[in-house]
Amino acid sequence: MAAPKKGRRQGAQGRPGRSLVFILIALVALTGGMFLSGHTTPRLGIDLAGGTSITLEAKNEPGQKNAINPTNMNTAVDIINNRVNGLGVSEAEVQTQGDRNIIVNIPKGTDQKQAREQVGTTAQLYFRPVITQASGEPTPDPSASSSSGTDKEKDTDKKDKASDKDEATDKATSPTATPTSQGRAVSDALKADPTPSASDKAKDDKKKDETPSSTPSADPSTAKLQEQFAKLDCTDKKARAEAGKGAKPSDTTIACGKSPDGKTWDKFIVGPAEINGKDVDKAQATINQNSAAWVVNMDFTKGGSKKFAKVTSKLSQQQPPQNQFAIVLDGEVVSAPSVNTTLSANAEISGSFTQDSAKDLANILSYGALPLTFHEQSVTTVSPALGGEQLHAGLIAGAIGLALVIIYLVVYYRGLSLIAIASLLVSAALTYTIMTLLGPTIKFALNLPAVCGAIVAIGITADSFIVFFERIRDEVREGRTLRPAVERAWPRARRTILVSDFVSFLAAAVLFVVTVGKVQGFAFTLGLTTLLDVVVVFFFTKPLMTLMARKKFFANGHKWSGLDPKRLGAKPPLRRARRATAPTAGPVDPKEA
Prior knowledge:
Layout: H1 2-14, H2 16-36, H3 46-49, E1 51-59, H4 70-85, E2 93-97, E3 101-107, H5 112-120, E4 125-135, H6 142-154, H7 161-173, H8 178-191, H9 220-231, H10 237-242, E5 253-258, E6 265-270, E7 275-276, E8 280-287, E9 294-300, H11 302-315, E10 325-329, E11 332-335, E12 346-349, H12 355-367, E13 373-382, H13 385-413, H14 416-442, H15 448-477, H16 482-514, H17 518-548, H18 552-555, H19 565-568
Parallel strand pairs: 5-11
Antiparallel strand pairs: 1-3, 1-13, 2-3, 4-6, 4-7, 4-10, 5-6, 8-9, 9-12, 10-11
Helix pairs in contact: 2-14, 2-17, 8-9, 13-14, 13-15, 14-15, 14-17, 15-16, 15-17, 16-17
């Protein structure tokens, strides 16, 4: 039974090269990925690289009272922070200033335009039934056609009542009369329920007793809405921004939206909102398999699914365009799909989306709408000069600390310091390449606190080497030779290292969760380097120590190896005590006793 145990121990000692090859392959792969990605330096935070600082001012919308309060401001900060930071490590800083301002600092290297859109978009999402839809250009005034017709009548020598009637008939069917007929269509649409059901046709006699004044055509607000719709020019950016401004979710209003080709604009009259963004549970940008275009898929909450099913059931019974529902985001129609059947679980927003715009919209819908409306008060550029000076000072401090650690290792551990220094270099290379690759992948940005975290990690890594070396020395002091001393010391050192690193990682994780901004950079770097410490000690330091134990310089306890038995005060080699066998004796003579 002793032979298999010995074989397992020799096998564990005899293949340290595999671990070293693994760590080498990992280093080569990470370095290659770094160069292939085109990013050879870590992405820097705003304090080191500079960037853009945006000041947002909260505004009260018509009808809102006391909306600007600490609760809504803090909610807005959280939403903006989630939108811009994504995973929370891109180092964009979002904080309040005063009672109604929010400061957003975006580091250089971030897509500034995209980030500003994420910051400023309120993301008020509503699903509204479409009442009518037309081209985005303003409708010509019908009176212009009438005056033109009058001028022609004056120039005509032969006129009578019959010809006047014919001319009127021609104008009614001419293209210049289209806006008039379009206006009647709008009036009819507003007069009816935007989403009538089949049972509406079988109403009782009370329907017949309605007074003319109750019809929308006699309602001044309806006439005003028709007039606004006719004059609306969606090709004008300012007019698009003003369209439907101040309308409540329960109001019928006008809006602009891009046509399906994404090149021109359409204008809409849309009914009261029946579903809003709070009914959306999750949104994701995907590619439609049929059209190969980017779309945004939305999953509704339980209550939202019921509302959506009810709305689509009504719309599916209507004729175009009243079988469409407009998806209105911040007053603009981003999509107006038609409904042919009842839907409930999810919906798809289609339009002229690119990959970035689809992901932006999905991100906004997932994190929710801002509780307030914000306007950009100022946009300034932040200089990296001050951060550069602080970084320079920090790097000098880190270099001094590293030099002191190396001097201590050389003086106290002598030859063993070579293993420690090699391990530190491997840990530094892994940290650098991973931080560089995390920049383009999760938008990680290296700031001053993150640099501090990396400097602290030097001590954590060196501490692991010291624990291992001291365990080996303890075994040598007990009189064991180096090779068995290394293998006996490793299990004890391994437990200590794992416990120590677990405590450090737990502290970093808690710090990352409960803090925001730059402190998260410190916590993230500390947690990353702690994990790398475990990887380096297990896959590099221990295998390298096993190989070095076979070399005469270390195995024979050279005075510069750091493992000199005399210098360590080692005991003589352990030997088994031999029991002396007592000879068989007869009865003892009392005289001899």
